[in-house]
Hints:
Number of strands: 33
Number of helices: 3
Shape: globular
Largest sheet: 4 strands, antiparallel
Amino acid sequence: MPTKSRGVAAPAVDLQPVAAVNLAPALGQCRAAAACLGPSLPRAILLTHAADFDVDPYINMFFFPTDTLKIALLDEQAHVVWQKDLGRGVVPGMWFCPVYPFDLDGDGVDEIYYVDNVDPQHPLSLDNYRLTRLDGLSGQVTGQWPWPRRGSLDRGLSQSYRNFILGGYVRGQRVLVTAQGTYTDMYLQGWNPDLTPRWEINIPVDSPGARGSHMCPVLDLDGDGVDELLWGERCLSLADGREKWCADRDTYRGHSDVIQPIFDEESSRWFVYAIRESAYDVAPRVALYDDQGRRIWGQVDKGHMDMGWTARLDDGRRLVMAIRISGKTCGPDGRFHSDREEFLFDARTGAPATLPFDLYQTMPVDLNGDGGHEFVRGIPGANGQVIDRHGQALGSVDGTVPLVGKFLHRPGEQILSYRKDGLIRFWADRRAQDSPAAQRRYAHPFYAHNLRAGISGSNYAVVAGV
C-alpha cells in the first residue's frame, strides 16, 4: 500500500444540509443504506427507525422497547416514498431485524428483505420469524419464507437473535445469504433468485478458527468473478458456502468487532484488517492479512478491541484505527465505553502512527472528493463534529450518523444524520469536486455494493476500504 505523500493540500469544505425531513416525533435509532429503484428513480435511501435506542439481545443490554420498528424509503430530496410499520412482533434492534436492499430477481429494482414476525403477540417466537420481501417501489409484501431456525435457545438470547442478511454475485448470478449466530454456533444459508436453497453451512462452537464479526463485507477477493463473504476471519465462497481460508485458524477462536477489506491500488490486491473483541489474552488483537488469509502484521497483545476504521488521507497515507476498552454498557439511554485507549497504525506496515485529534466516535468520509478522508464524530452519543486530518473543525452535522458515502448525485461523499427530535438530514460539501482517485473509488464494484450493507450488521463505514 502506498505511503508516499502527494503533497496536495486539502481544499476547504463548505458543509451544508442539502435535504431534510422530519421522519418521526422521536428517533432513538436509525440505520441506513443506499438502494436502487431502477431507471426512473436510480438512487434512494432505505432507513429503519424507532424512538428507542437499538435493542441488543445480550441479556445485560436488552430492554423492553416502547416503540415499533419502521422501514422507510427516501428519495434524493429526502421525500418519503413509502413507510411501513413492522408492528409489535418485531424487536427494534439491528440483530433481531436486519434489513437488506438487493435486486435478487435481476429486474433492475432492489427488493427489500428483512426478518419479520407473523405472531405480533410473541416477539421472541423464532418459530414465527419470516424472511420477508417487499417491493422496492411500493413497500408492499411480495413474499415470505420461514426464517432458518438453527441451534438451541439454551445458548441464550445473544446467540439466538443475531441475524444477518446480505447478498452478492457468482459470475453474474445473484445469491442472497441469511445467517444466524456470532459467538458460538454459526449457520449460513445461500438462496437462489427464486428463494430455493442453494447451499447451507454450519460452523459448530467447537470447530477450529474464529467466530463471526459484527461486520459482514462481501467482495470478489481474488478476482475470479465469484464473490466471497468475510465471516469474521473466515473467507466463504458465495458459490457454495465453501470455506476458502480462515486466518489464524489454529490460534484464535474468538470473534472480531471489525473485519474491514482494504484495496491496495498499487498492487491491485485486497487486504483484510481485523480488530478482535473476545478471547482477550490471545495475541495479536489487531492484525492485517493478505487475500489468502496470511498475516502481514499484528499489534497489541491483550484486551477487548472495539470499534475501528481504515482511512485514506489526502497526504497519501493509509491508516487503520482500533480502540481498546475495559467495558461497555448499552440500554435505553445509549451505548457507552469505559477506559478507552486508542491505537493508530500504518495500514501497510503496522507501524504506529498519530493524528492530532481524539479518534473515539469518528468515521471517515471524503466530503470534498479529493480521494482523502475527513472525519465525522457520528457514532451514537457523539456531537456530529466534522474535522480534517489536522483536527481543524469543518462544521457539524448536529446528530448521529448511520451512513457515509456517495448516496446522492453530487460530487464528494455525503453524510446522513439524525437527531432525537426526528430530523433526518443529508449533508454535503457544496464546493466538492471529484478527483480521479475519488472517481476510481466510486466505480469499484465493492463500493456500490457495500453501500447497501449499512443496514444489516455494523457496516456503516465499510466503503472506506477502497
